[in-house]
Design a protein that fits this description.
By secondary structure, the protein is of the alpha/beta class. The protein has 5 helices and 4 strands; from the N terminus they run βαβααβαβα. It has one domain: Response regulator (Rossmann fold, 3-Layer(aba) Sandwich), CATH 3.40.50.
């Protein structure tokens, strides 16, 4: 059996998109990859992100919001930035680390009635799931 790929998801605050990506990879990988997430800053977990992931059967409530460290980059085989700010501010990764950028919109910036905001969180959750599934396919081919 091959060693699982170490996948690091990086976002601005490690509160929402990177947290959902970490949760999806853990849920879908079946041991084929190990996820971590970190932020340029740590803003704590977004309660709406936790709620919409729970609706999909994925519990991310035990994950931590953390600041990106050199050790995270040294651990990673793949670094996925999930927002433009993180893509621009992510430190240089080691040459043997694959870097991927997913330009995901920030559901935490959604406005309107609560139903509209939650719809944006669900849309983002589902887009992240599809991207994580595709990444897993790439890693395992």
């Amino acid at each position: 059996m091959t060693t699982p790929a170490h996948v690091l998801f990086v976002c601005t605050g490690n509160a929402c998109r990177s947290q959902m990506a970490e949760g999806w990879l853990r849920y879908l990988a079946d041991g084929r990859a190990e996820p971590r997430s970190a932020g340029i800053e740590a803003h704590g977990q977004n309660p709406r992100a936790i709620e919409v992931m729970a609706e999909a059967g994925v519990n991310i409530s035990g994950q931590a919001s953390s600041v990106l460290q050199d050790e995270d980059l040294a651990w990673a085989d793949v670094v996925v930035t999930v927002c433009g700010h993180a893509d621009e501010h992510c430190p240089v990764v080691p040459p043997d680390v694959r870097r991927v950028h997913w330009p995901l919109s920030d559901p935490a910036k959604a406005s309107g009635a609560e139903e509209q905001i939650m719809a944006e969180f669900r849309r983002t959750r589902d887009e992240i799931r599809a991207r994580v599934a595709s990444l897993l396919d790439e890693l395992n081919t």
